[in-house]
Amino acid sequence: MSEERRRGHGSEDMIWELRNPDGAALGLEFAKARMASHRVVLVHAAPSRLNVTVRTVNEHLIAIGTDLHAQGETPISRLTLDDLRIVRENVWPGDGDIGLPVILPGGEVGLLRSWWNADDGSSWRWAIELSNSR
């Protein structure tokens, strides 16, 4: 995957808010993640329905995805910014996804470093890199 496809919207950090619309009056927060600007991100163990809002850290709205349904049973969803909307695909990550950010439940963000899955989807093995600074 090209760096141009991965990154977008300048160098300002983005806030990705992911909510499960199937709980409470306004849904339940699944993850709220801050990361460098990326056009494509992966999400681990996302709920079957997902509402997503992406903003800059200065609250400028970048894109919205409402009622994004999982298509297929995989542990990873790929979210792609497509102008002002967000597109969701449930995927088995491939070589082109290596290096992409992965949002974990709760909002921690790692980078996908490797992925393997059985052809029938019965098992998988993956590695992510987590790092932090103050």
Textual characterization of the structure:
It is a single chain. The chain is mostly beta strands and 134 residues long. It has one domain. It has one helix and ten strands. A six-stranded mixed sheet has the order 7-6-3-8-9-10, with no helix packed on it. The radius of gyration is 14 Å and the shape is globular. The termini are far apart.
Topology:
Blueprint (H helix, E strand, L loop, with lengths): L2 H4 L7 E7 L7 E8 L4 E5 L4 E8 L4 E9 L6 E7 L2 E7 L9 E3 L5 E9 L6 E6 L5
Parallel strand pairs: 3-8
Antiparallel strand pairs: 1-2, 1-4, 3-6, 4-5, 6-7, 8-9, 9-10
Features of this protein?
four-stranded antiparallel beta sheet; globular; 134 residues; disordered N terminus; 3% helix; mainly beta; single chain; six-stranded mixed beta sheet
Structural class: mainly beta
**In this structure, how is the largest beta sheet organized?**
6 strands, mixed
State the oligomer: single chain
- Total separate domains: 1
Please report the distance between the alpha carbons of the first and last residues. 30 Å
Shape: globular
- Total helical segments: 1
